Amino acid sequence: MTKISRVLALPIFICFFLLSGCEKDNYGINPNNKKDKFVFDVTWTEETTYFDEDALDDLERVDSEDHRYYFNSSNTAAANLNEGDIIVIHGLALRKVSSIEEVSNQIVVETEYAQMNEAIADGEVEWDYGVNFDSDLMPELLYNGQRYPFKKSKGDSLSLSMNIGKFAYKISMKFNGDKADVTQEIERSVGGVTKVRFICQGVIESFRTSNKITYKNSEVQTFDNNNKGLKGELKLSLDAAGSGSDKINFEFPATLLTFPFTVGPIPVMVSLKVQFVAAAVVPPEGSSRIAATFTYDSSTGLNYSLGGGIKAGGSEGKHKIKKEIAQTGAASAIGINFGLGFPRLEIALFGETIVPWVQTAFLIGGDFTFLPACQTAKAAYIGAVGYKLGFLGLGYEDTKTLWNIEEILLKAGDCDKSPQMFTESLDQLGISLE
CA 216 to CA 40: how far, in whole Å? Predict the structure, then answer.
């Protein structure tokens, strides 16, 4: 028999719940006046107790670090829990009971990790959500567990400056509803002189992210992730002069925005992230200037079907790579590149990540060698996804290349092989090189 009780939405979660009410076939309106869709139509397993949102006072305390839940002793459903049962707490948790104890008029429920297929017997979970760049958004950069707030500047722009190791990082964003203007700059200086600078400047438009998961007999039948309308124009440029003969590595994944909503009892978090990859070996007498503009209108995604396995989804769509400048030279070997994964999406349910990243990415680079003599400049437009589907009940964890479109900006001499650092950065941006 399926056990049903109620849930406390603690004050810290109340504003989260207000972002979207989610019932079966429930539709809401997002800021750009397009309909968002949320579907939650499932049957729980016999072992599952669902604490719904009707009784907010039943759950008196939550230890989120240890996943311990304190119910009022009057809650009969909590009192009837047994070790090994699955609990679903609306908007908060899906866990397996490891122990139950009554202490000072509270039922203390200790829990451990559980998967969605242990709670859901049959049914579907679906959403179609519009990520919109409303002017009220306030980004906050999350990097290595630290939060860095943006500051407002003239013209309603939001900006942030910080140091990451030897690099100075600057970002400014302006939200215009259906698009966002973005400028990001990374530079390294030596003795007060800028040696290398990487810049991304352009606009990205609002887009939609949708997912559908179906279950039958507690087994995943289908999983579909689709992110449509990934459209924008970005100019990548690099400028280096005598940055050094030691290889400079810069890899910087960070979260800029989070979009939380609920689908039935499931808290969903879509995070908008950015990933930079850069490498440079530029001798004292060497220099490099490379820039290209990427115009694109693409979609990304991932699809699973029972018996059919995992397949890459999405499409590179309409795209164009325009060379702006390509100049690289020195009296000895030189190599430099700069790549950007943006927008880079992360999707989590109940705090468990199922899509660590899915992204469009852009890369430029130059190389000058003597044995053999070769000068090149290249650009690449990339789509890639990483997935980790254990929480859904699927034993799949890997990455997939969605597309990799390379364009030669400059080629002179004996250049049969790709620049080594360019290839390494492709790998960092999710391209399989096997």
Answer: 14
